[in-house]
Design goal:
The protein has about 375 residues and is α/β, with parallel strands linked by helices. It is about 35% helix and about 10% strand. The chain contains 15 helices and nine strands. The strands form two sheets. Strands 5-6-4-7-3-8-9 form a seven-stranded mixed β-sheet, sandwiched between helices. Strands 1-2 form a two-stranded antiparallel ribbon. The chain binds adenosine-5'-triphosphate (ATP) and magnesium ion. Magnesium ion (MG) binds near residues 160, 164 and 246.
Length: about 375
Amino acid sequence: MRVQGPTGLDAVGSVAVRTFAAHQSPQAIRPRAKTAHQSMDGHHVNAMAGDRSGDNRGHFADYDDLPEGHFYDPDAEYEPDPEYAATLAPDAARQRRERVGPTGRPLPYFPIPGPLTDHGPAKIIAMCNQKGGVGKTTSTINLGAALAEYGRRVLLVDFDPQGALSVGLGVNPMELDLTVYNLLMERGMAADEVLLKTAVPNMDLLPSNIDLSAAEVQLVSEVARESTLQRALKPLMADYDYIVIDCQPSLGLLTVNALTAAHKVIVPLECEFFALRGVALLTETIEKVQERLNPELELDGILATMYDSRTVHSREVLARVVEAFDDHVYHTVIGRTVRFPETTVAGEPITTYASNSVGAAAYRQLAREVLARCHAE
Ligand SMILES: Nc1ncnc2c1ncn2[C@@H]1O[C@H](COP(=O)(O)OP(=O)(O)OP(=O)(O)O)[C@@H](O)[C@H]1O
Ligand SMILES: [Mg+2]
């Protein structure tokens, strides 16, 4: 077993022994080698993957635009932002020695998933928390992009009228003629007409904009109003391995639709004082949906986000979360870094914007942890 840092990645350890200029520009944080090399599992690691000079950035492109064998090795040496690495590993040496992750539990090794020969049926994951600004959209984009890097076919569903997921993938919601709203409300509307391919190979998007807010009202009078999204996604299930739904910050009818369509829920929790407030209401809602609408639904995990281990506060909150939810808390913890807001402006996932940053590595580890949980079933 490999000795890992608190994110489960050697990356943090490598920061501890090397020195970098703290003022490195985003462009400077790139893979060093420009030649492809072989990773542990035999995949080619394309070190050019993080090169942002390509002209497909922020645009929607065909899959063919990106080179084949576009795999990353999450255990490769990274040159991450040292300041960010410090937020996750104030005592990297101890954590590596004792193999303890930031949740205070022994850190398992999440293997690199093997390639798939065929795809589907999709597992549907709802990214849900009625509290705003906890990292739902950020986690949807980056978990999706990391799963896609591992060769999984991924569909992201923007189920928030704010359209933040669409914006985060470089789409202007105001310019869209067809959105997930049309798919929900218009009988006979084919998903293909609404689907957009993203610049990330293997990852598609069902975009949304403010039109979706009307659905919440219009659905009230529909028959089986809670399962409208489930019906709309059904024809797409065979084409994807994972469908991730970015919910809006409410427990209204749209979120209930997402929970009814989903097999699993991921609850991002920001590591700050009021994090646990409202979680009881959320778990109650999940249980109600389980009982009445979707017996298959289960809580896959609680994802701690915006963690900064340099603050006692962040560590205390995380400890409380682990106390309350125990094994439901993912070993992977997402640290706080300005890199994430930057990616929203850039309109792309962190896995391509700053491919070898610790933030990207953390979401890759989350993808491996999610896959490991799915395979353990
Ligand atoms: N790990 C992180 N570190 C720092 N900033 C982050 C992190 N994750 C997300 N952010 C930033 O926090 C803000 C809120 O994140 P995000 O939009 O993902 O949350 P959300 O739960 O989807 O919000 P909403 O409830 O409004 O939909 C964004 O500006 C995002 O860039
Ligand atoms: Mg959001």
